[in-house]
Amino acid sequence: MGVFQNIILPGFPYSIVKFAVLNHWEGHGEFETQVRILNPDHEELVSSLQSKFVIPPQGQADNITFFANVTFDRPGTYFLQVFLGSDMVQESLLYVQSLESGGSGAVN
User: Fold this and answer.
1) How far apart are alpha carbons 78 and 1 in whole angstroms?
2) Whose CA, among 17, 52, 59, 60, lies 20 to 30 Å from 104?
3) Closest among 42, 56, 52 to 93, alpha carbons compared
């Protein structure tokens, strides 16, 4: 996943002012990517616009997607999806928990 997959918040609903997702790509060619976050019911919480990038031959590229004011309405397992073109190429889990629960215990 990367830097983190656990988000511990003081209560719900809670808005995170700035939320960033970094993707590292290898290969070559021109691509479009999109990032989506789904709530525990698999409903779209937030979605980025399509972002175009180019990887030169034998190159690499980093793509950073910023979200502003992302509101998590309840604890649970959220889904972070990364698309390349129209194909989902990665789905990672975000475990959103309450500080009151000590950040431990089961997550629905």
Assistant:
1) 13
2) 17
3) 42
What average pLDDT does this structure show over 86-95?
A: 96
| Distance in angstroms (rounded) separating the CA atoms of residues 47 and 54 | 21
Is the bond preceding 13 in cis, omega lying within 30 degrees of 0? Answer: yes
Tens digit of each residue's pLDDT (9 = 90 or more) over 13-47: 999 999 999 999 999 999 999 999 999 999 999 99
Give strand ranges (E) for 2-104. Answer: 6-9, 14-38, 44-47, 51-72, 76-84, 87-98
* CA atoms 22, 23, 29, 32: torsion sign: negative
**All structural domains of the chain:** 6-101 (2.60.40.10)
